[in-house]
Design brief:
The structure is a homodimer of 349-residue chains.
Chain A: H1 4-11, H2 15-23, H3 30-43, H4 49-56, E1 61-65, H5 71-87, E2 91-95, H6 101-111, E3 117-121, H7 127-133, E4 140-143, E5 153-157, H8 159-172, E6 178-181, H9 188-203, E7 213-214, H10 220-231, E8 239-242, H11 245-257, E9 267-269, E10 286-288, H12 291-307, E11 316-319, E12 322-325, E13 342-345
Parallel strand pairs in A: 1-2, 1-3, 3-4, 4-5, 5-11, 6-7, 6-8, 8-9
Antiparallel strand pairs in A: 10-12, 12-13
Helix pairs in contact in A: 1-2, 1-3, 5-12, 8-9, 10-11
Chain A binds a DNA duplex (30 and 30 nucleotides) through helix 2 and helix 4.
Chain lengths: 349, 349
Amino acid sequence: MITIKDVAREAGVSIATVSRVFNNVGPVEEDTERQVRLVARRLKYVPNALGRGLSTKRTDAIGLLLPDLFGEFFSEVLRGSDQTAQKAHHHLVVSSSHNNREEIRAALTMMRGRVDGLVIMSPHIDAETLNENLPQSLPVVLLNCHVESNGFDSLNIDNYGGAFAMTQHLLWHGHTRIAIIKGTERNIDASERLRGWTDAITEGGGTPDPRFQVDGNFTEASGFDAAKQLLALSPRPTAVFACNDSMAIGALSAFRDEEIQIPEGVAVAGFDDVPIASYLTPALTSVQVGIHNLGIRAIETLLHAVRNKNTHCRQQIVLPTTLVLRESCGCTSYHAHVRDPLIQHIPSL
Amino acid sequence: MITIKDVAREAGVSIATVSRVFNNVGPVEEDTERQVRLVARRLKYVPNALGRGLSTKRTDAIGLLLPDLFGEFFSEVLRGSDQTAQKAHHHLVVSSSHNNREEIRAALTMMRGRVDGLVIMSPHIDAETLNENLPQSLPVVLLNCHVESNGFDSLNIDNYGGAFAMTQHLLWHGHTRIAIIKGTERNIDASERLRGWTDAITEGGGTPDPRFQVDGNFTEASGFDAAKQLLALSPRPTAVFACNDSMAIGALSAFRDEEIQIPEGVAVAGFDDVPIASYLTPALTSVQVGIHNLGIRAIETLLHAVRNKNTHCRQQIVLPTTLVLRESCGCTSYHAHVRDPLIQHIPSL
DNA sequence: AATGGCCATGTAAACGTTTACATGCCCGCT
DNA sequence: AGCGGGCATGTAAACGTTTACATGGCCATT
């Protein structure tokens, strides 16, 4: 391995001078600089990130803790994050599958020292665990976490508003028996969406029927199973609101399996508006949250905190959602990519 | 920040002893160990990864270079990788969007020193660029790269065999006008799949019609556009082989848009067998490559190289593919998740 | 000509670990 | 009693940087 010492020796200067050249800091004679760069290129010298990090206490890396990596949702978050991090010349250290407090604790610990900041997306995290396992000085941005403390920057989707508006839209279509495929139990996104559905039903003069609330876990398979369960009911629901698009896709598959027309036999709506939603058959009506943008915003917020050494003013942001009305809810004569889908903005809380 | 020195001082021992305790190495009195651990817990000491890395020349991190992060393909690779890396107590440093040689060069450089090894997935990489920009000692696994050198471990999908078999299957269905939606230009996966299609057509006694070869770039949007182009032809193709599932999904959407029945009006097949393929309407026939498994294998291979300090015997592996026959090709009476899809194994080259 | 100041560069400490080697103690053997 | 050996622990160098401070040369000012 070629180190700064090799370059210094070969170029006939001290290591300090080489360092100055590579960091564009301090005064250095033009000739000297040229010579150093020449030697460095010849030796293929690359400054060692660990040595640098140890000295500067910066790693130029950002940690991203995700609960999972399944499906388009996380892949989109990641895409936005990577794009933004890269623009700021930062690396992304990704870690997923942290589904209980102990795993999260371990992950937080492992990240210590390797990253300048942390974006945490975890339905199971709480302020105590965070404070216990992270130094106060480490910038943190919480993504879709339910942490009551305002000591952290946080980014949340307007789950309640989106679910409320979507259910209201289904009511507007004339549906009276609207089922919901719930998300993972004890997940904050899931429960907020359920609350939106419940309130919309109630406000519409109906009563939320327990039999119309079936369990799911955000996967296609669970959506498939849930839809099958709903079909066994009598009377059947005339509309189904799935708490995310994956489950909606699973449900669509189940309905097709039973040769039920959509939206005639049953209307379907999802949540997230993943990129493929518009390409499905029928095109899926969904609540758009701008997932890609979520990743971008998270990293931007974190970088701001890093630059200010975590002494900045914390912000809790709730991102507004948008209804994207396509075929599956019964908003007819929509042609993919030929006309724009009907869109209805939902004001943030 | 709490360092090993703080723990040593507080526990009344030397830093060497603390280090020994935390690395389970060398002899240390039971009482001493207990005392050290107690103090460490009280002070919430976590060994600094940079210091450790500098000393041991290991980072316990693995770099993953991806061309992109769009869609389920990469998300599945990542999922498999993360899972395997985590099991081996390694971190994953992800970097994407490297679409030309210069960007790759920069990414390789940035990774230097931060990772113990590199998984590189890039259609644009060549042996020269790799050798130029990486120290010989750094383990590398090439994923779906077209590098003729056998100086690297590599994992490749049997693109040719899969495409050949799928085209043959479409021929078996009686189709004579089989179009192909090509992948990104100059992409090795894309060209190998095209070659498979071409050879199968030729071997079936037909002639590959240039008008039936339309451009695509592996995105849903390009598949949509390509399908629209195919519909403008006369006579139209009776079957379409899309070089990946995303484009197949785009094509399905375009056909639905024109109210063409699938598979009656036109049969469709994809490549990759992404998780949602089985949930689509109609369920998508595809070439299964076990994407998740690809990520697992890549990391396993890399870890093996790391453990052997890169002195191991290099392997070039071509992973066999499997035909998964569902509705979209005309293999009828398939019901999602009720029966297993028809499956046909394709021997590796 | 002596002085002061600036500029280019060098020196060395610091960052937080690991680890080869040194130290000193205790025990058992002769 | 003297000695060797093993065991627990300490000491210090090394890893590759950055950076505060020191140094020395040169130029302009008095």
